[in-house]
Amino acid sequence: MAIHAQWKKSSYFGGGEGNDRVEIARVHPHIAIRDSKAPSRAALTFPTGAFVTFVEALKTADVRSAGMR
Fold first, then answer.
1. How many CB atoms neighbour CB 21 within 10 A?
2. Residue 36 gets which letter from DSSP?
3. What is the C-alpha to C-alpha distance for residues 36 and 9, in angstroms, rounded to an integer?
4. Which residues are CB-contacts of 34 (< 8 A; sequence separation ≥ 6)?
5. Which residues contact residue 37 at a Cβ distance below 8 angstroms, ignoring those fewer than 6 apart?
6. CB count, 10 Å around CB of 5?
7. Which of 1, 21, 3 is nearest to 13 (CA)?
8. What is the largest distance, in Å, between two alpha-carbon atoms of the chain?
9. Which of 58, 67, 63, 7 is nearest to 37 (CA)?
10. Which residues on adjacent β-strands are paired with residue 31?
C-alpha cells in the first residue's frame, strides 16, 4: 500500500557509497520510514511515541559497540 505523504530524507547516512538513506514522513498518528532508493516499495510505520523513543535511544547509545551499523 502506497503512503501518500510528504517524505523527508534523513540527514544521517552510513558509509560506503554515501547513498544509504531512509526517508521519513508523518502519517498521523504514526511515523513512516522507507528506503530512499526504493520509494515505491513497502514502508514501515511506527506509533510516533515509539519512534521518538527509538531515535532518542540511538542518540544516547554507542550503536557501534552494540554491533549495529
1. 14
2. T
3. 7
4. 3, 7, 22, 23, 25, 41, 42, 43, 44
5. 19, 20, 21
6. 17
7. 21
8. 37
9. 7
10. 26, 46
Quote the cell numbers at residue 5: 505523504
For 11-69, the pLDDT digits (tens) are: 766 665 666 788 999 998 999 999 988 888 889 999 999 999 988 888 887 655 555 55
Say which residues have a Cβ less than 8 Å from residue 2's Cβ, sequence separation at least 6: 40
Q: What is the CA angle 9-53-47, rounded to 5?
A: 75
pTM of this structure: 0.68
H or E element in which residue 45 lies: strand 44-47
Reading the block at residue 40, the C-alpha cell is: 515505491
Q: How many CB atoms lie within 10 A of CB 30?
A: 19
Q: Cell 505523504 sits at which residue?
A: 5
Which residues does 39 contact at the CB level (< 8 Å), separation at least 6?
A: 7, 23
